[in-house]
Amino acid sequence: MVIYLKNIFNDAGDITLFAARFFKEVLRPPFEIKEFIRQCYTIGYKSLPLVGITGFIMGMVLTLQSRPTLAEFGAESWLPGMVALSLIREIAPVITALICAGKISSGIGAELGSMKVTEQIDAMEVSAINPYKYLVVTRILATTLMVPLLVVFADAVGIYGGYIGINIHADVNLFRYFSQVLASLEFLDIIPATIKTFFFGFFIGMIGCYKGFTAANGTESVGKAANSAVVAASLTIFIIDMLAVQITDLFF
Question: What's the pTM value of the predicted model, to 2 decimals?
Answer without folding.
Answer: 0.90
